[in-house]
């Protein structure tokens, strides 16, 4: 089947003729073809979105919220269907896919109360006979550029907030996992969203470049790698756009000697190997302090060896494949490089295949633990984005926090400890935007905002939640005076006005 775009409330084939294969990572088979947009297609969708947004901006908040309540219900009703698509194209287990959908729906929950978030301020009698109030208005047409690893959740951090605040939204879908976004588009139409406000297109780097430069697009939300985030930020801002660009991560956790080691090991395995490690909030690096190292590695290995790795269609599976053969080969080469450099391969997942032979051509890598890793190796200082846990050792908390903060990334970080003082100190010391205390993946709930520090976030506005509302709207301050009937106009001087 050929997957087309979604424009103006309907499937749209456009003028582009190039396609990309869509693979099932569990089998390695091509399951669909994805049609790529042309430059003319992008011009068309922007024109459609701009026209629709002008009308939508004047629609009442009550009506916008009504649409979002309907959308929330439909996402719940179609969660199983969405999960099927995520499993098929992304390789996730079914439970993981359903968890992603639930967390994405939280943002819709948040915008069902967006009328509160958009309340302005009012000052009576700021000066004699003068009142001041504020309001927030939509920025216009917003483009979202999303990664493959969360085909429902990450776009849902963007489009519900953008739409609820009065914008039109164009999603440049991740080419590896397009189908879930097409279903979301159909659900928006069923929810009563006017045509042209939520649009989905696919494209290559050329289309991304045109999005960054297009004069009809007012703001861009991006989630992906840091090198691309720099391009998005620099190009978008140069062309006068508002940009939020969330980059990569290489999240660290410190494990103190007083941690409950079995508890820590269970949660570290979930953070490192869940979604085959393909999360921007995965936990690929653990810094073991003092004598915690050997105890931790033993406990983590015992848990990791029990992880059931298999296709998402098998209810017993706890972890699926990595997304492409190229990613598999890259990760395996980094493991080999670490082994040759003297790191200890506590658990080597290379060569893994699920039982039965039906999935031998899938992109499989079992849970892998690499201990005593030198910090100059790629497997440590670059984002692996695979089911690999790197363990490094530190003598003290001070050494550990210095190591954590030396990373150029600052998306999330965690500490495992039973000491409240150490935990509190860590939350102050660590240079990261999201912090967990005995929580391996500290992703905020939707009524907070998601975002890191340093190379993990370019600019200063986080995604979804209250900061998302601010990003997708512009503030306006209105100063008002109403002369009284019959009042004679006195002398008005030319000096700068003062408040009195």
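Sequence proposed for the structure above (500 residues):
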């Amino acid at each position: 089947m050929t997957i087309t775009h979604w424009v103006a409330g309907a499937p749209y084939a456009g003028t582009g003729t190039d396609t990309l294969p869509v693979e099932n990572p569990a089998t390695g088979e091509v399951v669909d073809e994805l049609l790529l947009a042309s430059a003319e297609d992008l011009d068309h969708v922007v024109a459609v979105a701009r026209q629709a947004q002008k009308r939508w901006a004047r629609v009442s908040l009550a009506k916008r919220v009504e649409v979002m309540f309907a959308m929330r219900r439909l996402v719940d009703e179609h969660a199983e269907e969405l999960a099927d698509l995520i499993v098929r194209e992304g390789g996730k287990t079914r439970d993981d896919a359903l968890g992603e959908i639930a967390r994405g729906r939280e943002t819709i929950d948040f915008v069902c109360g967006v009328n509160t978030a958009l309340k302005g301020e009012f000052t009576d009698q700021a000066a004699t006979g003068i009142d001041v109030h504020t309001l927030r208005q939509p920025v216009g047409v917003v483009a979202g550029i999303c990664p493959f690893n969360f085909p429902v959740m990450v776009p849902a951090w963007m489009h519900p907030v953008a739409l609820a605040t009065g914008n039109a939204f164009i999603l440049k879908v991740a080419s590896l996992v397009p189908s879930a976004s097409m279903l979301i588009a159909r659900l928006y139409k069923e929810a009563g969203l006017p045509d042209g406000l939520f649009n989905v297109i696919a494209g290559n780097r050329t289309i991304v470049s045109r999005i960054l430069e297009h004069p009809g697009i007012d703001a861009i939300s991006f989630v992906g790698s840091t090198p691309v985030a720099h391009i998005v930020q620099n190009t978008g801002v140069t062309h006068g756009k508002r940009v939020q660009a969330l980059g990569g991560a290489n999240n660290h956790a410190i494990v103190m000697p007083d941690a409950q080691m079995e508890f820590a090991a269970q949660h570290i395995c979930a953070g490192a190997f869940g979604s085959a490690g393909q999360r921007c909030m995965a936990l690929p690096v653990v810094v073991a302090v003092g004598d915690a190292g050997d105890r931790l590695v033993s406990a983590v290995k015992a848990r990791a060896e029990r992880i059931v790795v298999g296709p998402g269609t098998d209810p017993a599976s706890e972890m699926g494949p990595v997304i492409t053969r190229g990613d598999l080969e890259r990760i395996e080469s980094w493991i080999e490089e670490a082994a040759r450099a003297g790191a200890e391969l506590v658990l080597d997942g290379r060569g893994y295949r699920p039982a039965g032979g039906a999935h031998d051509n899938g992109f499989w890598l079992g849970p892998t633990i690499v201990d005593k890793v030198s910090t100059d190796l790629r497997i440590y200082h670059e984002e692996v984005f695979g089911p690999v846990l790197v363990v490094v050792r530190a003598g003290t908390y001070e050494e550990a926090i210095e190591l954590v903060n030396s990373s150029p990334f600052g998306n999330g970080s965690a500490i495992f400890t039973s000491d409240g003082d150490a935990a509190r100190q860590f939350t102050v010391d660590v240079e990261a935007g999201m912090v967990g205390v005995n929580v391996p993946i500290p992703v905020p709930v939707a009524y907070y905002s998601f975002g890191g520090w340093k190379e993990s976030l370019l600019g200063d506005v986080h995604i979804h939640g209250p900061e998302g509302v601010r990003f997708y709207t512009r503030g306006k301050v209105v100063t008002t005076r109403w002369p009284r009937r019959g009042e004679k106009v006195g002398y008005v001087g030319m000096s700068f006005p003062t408040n009195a």
